[in-house]
Amino acid sequence: MRVSTSTLYDQGTRSMLQQQDSLFRLQQHLSTGKRIMTPSDDPIGAARAHELAQSLSLNTQYADNRYRAADSLQQVDSTLGSVSNLIQSVRTMAVAAGNPAFSDSERKMMAVELRGHFDELLGLANTRDEQGNYLFSGFKGNTRPFEQTANGVEYKGDQEQRLIQVSSSRQLPVSETGDAIFEPGGLSLFQTIEDFIDELETPGGAALSGAVSTALQDLDIALDNVLAKRAAVGSRLQEVDALQQIGEDTAIQYQQSLSRLQDLDFAQAISDMTRQQALLEAAQKTFTRVSGLSLFNLI
Amino acid sequence: MANGIMNVGVSGLRAAQVALLTTSHNISNATTPGYNRQQAIQSASTPLANSDGFIGRGVQITTVQRIYNQHLVSQSLQAQSQSSQLDSHYNEIKQIDNLLADTTSGLTPALHNFFNAVQDVASNPASISSRQAMLSNAEALTARFQQMDQRLSEMREGVNSQITGSVTEINSLAQQIAGLNMNIQAVESSANGQPANDLLDQRDALVRDLSRIINVDVVRQNNGHYNVFIGNGQSLVVGSSAMTLKAVPSSSDPQRLVVAMDQQGGEIVLPEHQLQGGSLGGLLAFRSETLDSVQNSFDQLAWGIADTFNTQHQVGFDLQSVAGSNFFEGTDPSDPSQAARNIRVAISDPAKIAAADNNDGGVTNNINALKLAGLQTENTLQGGTASYQSAYARLVSQVGNKTRELEVTSKAQESMLNQTDQALQSLSGVNLEEEAANLLRYQQMFQASSKVIEIGNSLFDSLLRI
Questions:
Q1: CB A57 to CB B116 under 8 A?
Q2: Which pick of A160, A277, B96, B335 has the fewest CB atoms within 10 Å?
Q3: CA dist list (Å): B258 to A197, B123, B265
Q4: Is residue A231 part of a domain?
Q5: Burial class of B344 by CB neighbour count within 10 A (0 to 12, 13 to 18, 19+)
Q6: What is the pLDDT of residue A209?
Q7: Residue B1 in this model has a pLDDT that exceeds 70
Q8: pLDDT number for residue B2
Q9: Model confidence pLDDT, tens digit, residues B40-80
Q10: Domain Flagellar hook-associated protein FlgK helical spans what residues (chain B) (predicted)?
Q11: Is residue A298 part of a domain?
């Protein structure tokens, strides 16, 4: 075929430009470490990467949520622990108070001590979390759940449990309501203690043995209830732990998938780069050779 | 007889001179774009008839012609305008491809940060700082929508200014072609119909330039005029007159420039399907096939987020137990167009976030916040088939696919163009080796013809010496 001189130059230049373009792209991939620079590098992979990035981001957020849930549950758990210890102390005092050998003044002293326990219990029932929200008032986080009134201690919260999204499919209750803890079946723990204190303060203590047995009975019900609630909270804490483990495993899987989609295979890229470099050098050498040949050099 | 030899020798000298001139002309134009190599066509002069037979009277140059093939040229014009169309579409769409780029840029991170903040409010509904973070991240999300829309609008402006530039260029080329039609006819008739090779090349080069901007068809007239049609048969040059194109705002959207033709008593807008091929065709295809649909997808997405989020937000109650208002604003409830440009956060007071599902005054009531957070993964868009993220991912893959397709087809078309150009060059291009050989050949011819004259002269001398 007859080749025009322009074609000779154009073709030579074009092939060098092409090799250079490929080399430049490889260099970009290598310097960023990315396999997908823009969606057109791998349209399906790019779309998948966006969705995986969301899954990964959500997974991280669920992990944050789980820490928050664990904090709340631990606080509930430890408060319930204190409550059950307190009930046990009150129970021990009630058993001791049944001794008919005590005088009125000795019973009064016990009443004073019990009053202290009562106040302590009220304090525990009105515990706040680190953000200043009451632990046991349900959704009414800024309402003091238990108020001392003329009719005794009254519950002011509601019956709602706070929920936290701890995984894509699980909203975990992280609070217990005050009435469920301190007033099981309408039996108020505060009332039980108050009634018993009243009895202790009554001179003569005629009805004391009956009061002791009522108090013990009611305290046992309250204690069982608190222990049951605590067990429920404990199992939710375990669930959070289990989900945390799963979440960490999932995160690794997501990261690996994302890396497979987005990250460059360096070995491959470097070998491509070397090949491309050789091709460019070959194009340069042949171009100088071919363009250097001319009849004009000889005439 | 001696006189006859002299004349034959002179004819050879003259022919060699013309051939040498033509060769030098080829050499000096070896790199001139659009130049077709020229050839001096020699033929033997009419012989002298007498009883001895027909006696040759030397050589004459019948014409200087350019080596040219109409068919190859029109093939190359087609290839050029298709290649330019794909190239310009690719260059434009590549900008969007870059805009969407990877998962660390574009809309994705803004969307994730916003919903992470919503989750934080769900976990800490009474916390003002969590609520404030949700508002700030919502601002960042709407700002990102606006930035993306801004970039797309800039591309639209870019398309407009390129249309204006293309139209100016088409008009100027049309004027020049019409001028050359006249000029060529005039000079050729004054040269007894000999072809005005270099002017013909110039006109062909102008047509070639035109084919870079738009699809071109040339109909050659008997008088040598080119009648030029662009796009799908719109006439642009007829003989010595050229039509004038204009870039005018579209009647349906003043921000959108369209191409119109100046007519007596007004202008006629040319439909886009009549303006195919070339960089202009590529621009128009980019605008109608890609830019419009991408901007529309962004609008749909912004509108969808505003609509679904507002709907859920309105069934909730804020920290003061007041029913939730719109969370996002600025979008038209019944029309998604321009939603990405206009979307704003309606709330500035963190307490106004409606995290609760009733008005009992529960500050730790987070039921509605949980539902708002749940919207992130719910399939609320595109007829219940896509979440926000997957709708965006669809857009990304749509643009990625189209960009890739154009990258491949424009490369294929470019190599097609190279092949037709090579075929054209193979026939019409200057080869310097060939010209060097011709230089030697015609130098020899010149020297030999001089020798003929010298011999003729010496013959004449010997006669005189008698």
A1: yes
A2: B335
A3: 93, 53, 19
A4: yes
A5: middle
A6: 84
A7: no
A8: 60
A9: 999 999 988 889 899 999 999 999 999 999 999 999 999 99
A10: 94-328
A11: no
Q: Which residue of A has its CA nearest to B321?
A: A140
CA-based end-to-end distance of chain A: 25
Residue B386 has pLDDT above 90, yes or no: yes
Question: How far off is chain B from A154, nearest CA to CA, in Å?
Answer: 18
What ipTM was estimated for this complex?
A: 0.85
Query: CA nearest B433 in A: which residue?
Result: A295
* B397/A39 Cβ within 8 A: yes
Task: List the single residue in B103, B370, B433 with the smallest CB-CB distance to A163.
Answer: B370
For residue A128 the two structure tokens come to 């706040």
Q: Which two tokens stand for residue B159?
A: 């398309």
Range of the domain at A99: 52-257
DSSP B45: P
Residue B439: its pLDDT value, please? 95
Residue to mutate among B96, B102, B430, with most A CBs inside 10 A, is B102
Is B439's CB within 8 Å of A299's CB? yes
Contact at 8 Å (CB) between B76 and B64?
no
Residue B227, both tokens: 């009648």
Mean pLDDT of chain A: 92
Contacts of B30 (CB under 8 A, 6+ apart): A5, A6, B430, B432, B435
Nearest CB among B124, B403, B437 relative to A295 is that of B437
Q: Closest partner residue to B425 among A4, A36, A39, by Cβ?
A: A4
Residues A262/B103, Cβ–Cβ less than 8 Å = yes
Is there a contact between A296 and B98 if contact means CB atoms under 8 Å apart? no
- Coil vs helix vs strand at A96: helix
Residue-wise pLDDT for A255-287, tens only, equals 999 999 999 999 999 999 999 999 999 999 999
Query: Under an 8 A CB cutoff, do A46 and B425 touch?
Result: no
Residues paired with A5 in a beta bridge: none
Task: Give the three-class secondary structure for B237.
Answer: strand
Mean pLDDT of chain B: 93
* Strand-strand pairing, B234-238 and B241-242: antiparallel
Domain count, chain A: 1
Residue of A25, A38, A255 to mutate, testing the B interface (most B Cβ within 10 Å of its Cβ): A38
| Residue A273, domain member (yes or no) | no
Residues in chain A with pLDDT values less than 50: none
Q: Indicate the residue of B365, B373, B436 with minimum beta-carbon distance to A299.
A: B436
* CA A140/CA B131 separation, integer angstroms: 17
Residues of B in contact with A143 (CB under 8 A): 361
Domain borders along chain B are: 1-67+430-465, 70-227+272-428
Show residues of chain B in contact with A62, CB under 8 Å.
119
pTM of the predicted protein model: 0.86
The CATH number of whichever domain residue A126 belongs to comes to 1.20.1330.10
Kindly report each contact of residues A141-149 with a partner whose C-beta sits within 8 Å and lies 24 or more positions away, as own/partner: A141/B125, A141/B126, A141/B362, A141/B363, A141/B364, A142/B126, A142/B363, A143/B361, A145/A177, A145/A178, A146/A122, A146/A178, A146/A182, A146/A190, A148/A122
Contact flag B362-A160 (C-beta cutoff 8 Å)? yes
Interface test with B, best of A1, A8, A139 (most B CBs within 10 A): A139
pLDDT category of residue B233 using cuts at 50, 70 and 90: confident
- For chains A and B, CB pairs below 8 A equal 194
Degrees to nearest 5, angle at CA B69 with B64 and B73: 125
**pLDDT for residue A259:** 93
- For residue B76, give Cα distances in angstroms to A75, B89, B420: 80, 20, 5
* CB spacing of B362 vs A57 below 8 angstroms: no
Q: Rg of chain B's alpha carbons, rounded to an integer?
A: 37
Across the interface, of B100, B373, B377, the residue whose CB is closest to A39 is B100
pLDDT tops 80 at residue B103? no
